[in-house]
Amino acid sequence: MRRNALLAGCLSAVLAVTACQDPKNELTAPATPGTAELQQQATLTRGDASIKMSSARRVVDIIDPLRVVTPTACDDNSPIVQYFLTRAFQIPLPTLSLLINNWADLVPTYESLLFQTRNSATFFGYNGEYNTRMTQTERDVKSFWDIKSDDIQVLAMHGTVLQDPTRVVPTYKSPEFLGLRDRTAQLWAAQDRDAMLNVPETNGGDHPLFTFNAFAISAPEIGIPDKIVMGDGILDGYKAVGFDDVALPSIFAHEFAHHIQFERGYFDELPPGSDPKTVDQAELTRYTELMADAYAAYFLTHSRGAAMNQKRVEQFLQVFFQIGDCAFTSSGHHGTPTQRMRAAQFGFQVAAEFQKQGQILTADQFHARFVEKYTTFVAP
After folding, report:
1. Mind listing the pLDDT tens digit for each residue in 349-367?
2. Angle at Cα 342 formed by Cα 336 and Cα 347, nearest 5°?
3. Residues with Cβ < 8 Å from 142, sequence gap 6 or more?
């Protein structure tokens, strides 16, 4: 069963993920305790365009952070949401509205998705501060799992690309993003550049609004190599809320797990216990996302993996799993925080069981154990 990968992958920091499917939806700053000045900000609206990524492409975990929060019993208020909102609304509202109208906050994502390849100039973090850790994490994760991974390019996403119309214009014009006409693309790119250079609060693009994102893609049929892209903003955000030690390997391990799924065909599976006639995209996405959470947790705490302290990983995941994923019927639903933590705890338990023997399960062996337990993760 083929996945609509882009829509299935729409994750958000402050979201009702439904806006992934309708880019014309209004974007309203969510009310968050203690930030009354944010509550006063006006409605933000997108330009009259839509993302056109084909269902034949597989992209997971795209983030579009400025979207409506749906009030539910699922709490999507967390330190990382507070951080993102505070930083986003430091940008003067006229400029912020212009950038959102221009989809500028997603340009770095699609520029890296569609056009970037790894080269000697690739660096991680606003100033390359994550280079060493990223290299080590990539090496450790790739050597841990038994899939072909030497072809997976690990790339960075920088908001400073918005200063360069020669890269922004082709992104806007790409039929996989907005497919704008040349004149409109040129205009929007010029406006974006002006905001980066003349509005100090954008920090030239080194701002979480533009790179609060990490994703995996597999699209060889259109000439895009397998990639994991790590945004500057999401790494800096977790550093700001006290998780600098664990965020990078945790996020990377989750994205790498999606490449395990690409490689082994797990995206084509139906969740255990589901009805092929009634299963919807939300359930399909939840299944693969909970699986990725479990794979990541297994690597992070295994003695031959990242060998991280389980309690510390749990502390991070409690924040990571609260990033707004409460839109239960959305095609991009990743599972509730409780469900995601159950999947992660399963990964911890399997790591503890097998590391005593010095054993690393193969990707298929771990998958079989996950499938066996899956219904317990989503049970009421």
Report:
1. 999 987 666 789 999 999 9
2. 130
3. 149, 150, 152, 256
Give tens-digit pLDDT for 158-207. 999 999 999 999 999 999 999 999 999 999 999 999 999 999 999 999 99
Q: List the domain boundaries for the chain.
A: 5-378
Distance of CA 67 to the CA centre of its chain: 14
pLDDT of 375 over the 50 cut = yes
Exposed (0-12), middle (13-18) or buried (19+): which is 179, by Cβ within 10 Å? middle
For the cut 50, the answer to whether the pLDDT of residue 267 exceeds it is yes
Token reading at 297? 């947790």
Q: Is the dihedral of CA 262, 65, 106, 56 positive or negative?
A: positive
Q: Whole-prediction pTM value?
A: 0.83
The pLDDT > 90 percentage for the chain reads 60
> How far is 252 from 141, CA to CA, in rounded Å?
8
- Phi, psi angles (nearest 5°) of residue 230: -115, 120
Cβ atoms of 213 and 169 closer than 8 Å: no
For 132, counting Cβ atoms within 10 Å of its Cβ (0-12 exposed, 13-18 middle, 19+ buried), the class is exposed
Contacts (Cβ under 8 Å, ≥6 apart) of 200? none
As a whole number, the mean pLDDT across the chain is 81
| Residue in the block written with tokens 């005593």 | 356
Please state, in angstroms and rounded to a whole number, the distance separating the CA atoms of residues 154 and 72: 36
* More confident position, 57 or 8: 57
